[in-house]
Amino acid sequence: MAAWLGRGFRERGNITIELALALPLLLFMVAGVLDLGMLFWEKHILTNATREGARAAIQALETGSGLVAAKTQAQVRQVVQDYLNRFHLKDLNGDNLVLDDTNFSYTWDNSGSGIMVTVALNRIPYRMMLLPNFRAFFGYERSPGDEAFYLSSRTRMAAEWVTPPS
Length: 166
Hints:
Layout: H1 2-5, H2 7-58, E1 60-63, E2 66-69, H3 73-86, E3 104-111, E4 114-127, H4 131-134, E5 148-158
Helix pairs in contact: 2-3
């Protein structure tokens, strides 16, 4: 009877089994590409936000007594916050990311080549969407917050001003 069914019937069963074995791996790879792509996108946004903040921080105003910083620390923070808001970055709770003294810094120092301004974002959370859920298939116990990666970015530029901001 098996000879009567022919070779095509048996091969169709093989294709189904091969698909059942390969499909989970393929889906895992697609999920990984999506998650890592979004991670790199968010890192790119953070890097650009610190660049925008540094550009705003280095600008100078000419007063009668010399070059002074055009923006205060609060104004530089707002420039970075506006950039992050434009791309709707979220914290771990799903709320809009808000910058404060724990995750934002604006500093300057007088090095041999002039005043250097540093704008930094620290420990900005990025929640992995798909990959952490796959770990449960391998017996991994999840705890709250372990699906997050914490990203940082820093930009350093030479200031145009001589008198630091107030």
